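The instructor's notes for this session suggest beginning with a concrete chain rather than abstract definitions. Hand out the sequence below and ask the class to guess, before any prediction is shown, which regions might be ordered.
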Amino acid sequence: MRDDAKATMMDSWEILKQADELERRGQAFALATVVWRQGPSSSQQGARAIITADGELHGWIGGACAEPAVIGEARRVIADGTPRLLLLGSRGQFGAAVPEGMTVVPISCQSEGALEVYIEPVVPAPHLVIVGRSPMAHTLADLAGALGWRADVVAGGDFTAAAASPGSMVVVATQGHGDEAAVEQAVAARPAYLGLVGSRRRGAAVLGYLADRGLPADQLDRVRVPAGLDLGHITHQEIAVAILAELVQLRASGALAGAAGAASARNTTAPADAGATGGPAESGRATPAPAEAVDPVCGMTVPATAASFPLAHDGVTYYFCSTNCRRRFEQDPAAYAPKETRC
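After discussion, reveal the predicted structure:
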């Protein structure tokens, strides 16, 4: 096996390890794999990269021509949940040989290389944290597991904010044994859902106590009391069903959209070996996605940042995938500038 192929295989395994870690932490992302290449190209068949929802790329998928295109398409894959097979090159290179269903993404590479990249979305299973050891808590965990959710049951005294993330759903079912402490820890995690099992009277007492301790009202207002659909006086098994039904209802309506992937932008932490691959930095809130622009020369979508060789012409700032496209524009702006901006 060639040395570069061996290196690609080793790097790909490292990327898969990172993907497993991101999935475990509940972070949505896309996995991009090079399935074919036409040389000369800086990428290798089998190369993989992770792209997060906020456009961070970890790994190696290709050079300056391919990377922005892959990032842009990967973010669309994460958004709509549909995998795509990309041909990075131009239809002129392949003509009628482009298979039906393949997405052609124009790139402008002086090397005239080309890539086929398969991008698949990875949306982690919903994460439910149940605080308390009552029979209802275990019934709820079993029901959530039947839906394919990841359910953790944590004793009230062992629960801390670190057990949940902004993408988690937390149900406090301590039932009078340390409710206040459990809710305070859960509020600190800022989960997508936070419910307290108990009567409205008990809930008002707990939330009033926490308000007196200085917890922000906007955070306490998000606590649902009682957790679950209001079905009246019911058994503990039925309470578990009512809570799960509420969670399913909220997710289906989009009210808990963050429960599947909010952590992708708000709870990102770097893998242990992130230094070798440009791992994500820790962040406490979402990173705004960079604006995009279309290279007027080759039609490639690029970030509208200083890294994309900006050039002002007739009061409009253009961005380019490479210095080659920028130079071609400078030599004949009228050939590339949109008609409405031409002199």
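Then share the key points. Residues 260-289 have pLDDT under 50 and may be disordered. Residues 3-122 form one domain.
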